[in-house]
Amino acid sequence: MTKYLTRRERRAALTAKALPPQAVRAWAYRVLVAAGAVVTFYGIMTAQEVVVWLGLAAVVFNATPAAATPVRPPEAR
After folding, report:
1. Is residue 33 classed exposed, middle or buried when 0-12, 13-18 and 19+ CB atoms within 10 A define those classes?
2. Residue 31 near residue 63, CB atoms below 8 Å
3. Cβ neighbours of residue 6 under 8 Å, at least 6 residues apart?
4. Would the pTM of this model clear 0.85, i.e. be above it?
């Protein structure tokens, strides 16, 4: 028998499949922040442009919660 999902359950399942794990998102955002500093240093982009791109990356990666949360549990440190 087929189990039908509610809209909320379908949305949660799709979101879970679409986003990489939290540790990957946090790592990617940290790499982008470092890359932003490098491209600003070499004059490829201005600081304002880097801020805009990092803001976009934060939205795409949902990195704000990932940046505020430790990657490893406290007992693993």
Report:
1. middle
2. no
3. none
4. no
Q: How many CB atoms lie within 10 A of CB 51?
A: 13
Note the pLDDT tens digit of each residue in 35-47.
Answer: 999 999 999 999 9
Contacts with 73 (C-beta within 8 Å, 6 or more apart), sequence order: none
Q: Kindly give the interhelix angle for 47-61 and 22-41, rounded to the nearest 10 degrees.
A: 170
CA distance 32 to 23: 14
Position 1 scores a pLDDT of 65
**C-beta of residue 22 within 8 angstroms of C-beta of residue 4:** no
Q: How far apart are CA 45 and CA 59, in angstroms?
A: 20
Q: Residue 35 corresponds to which amino acid?
A: A
Question: Quick one: tokens of 72?
Answer: 């490893």
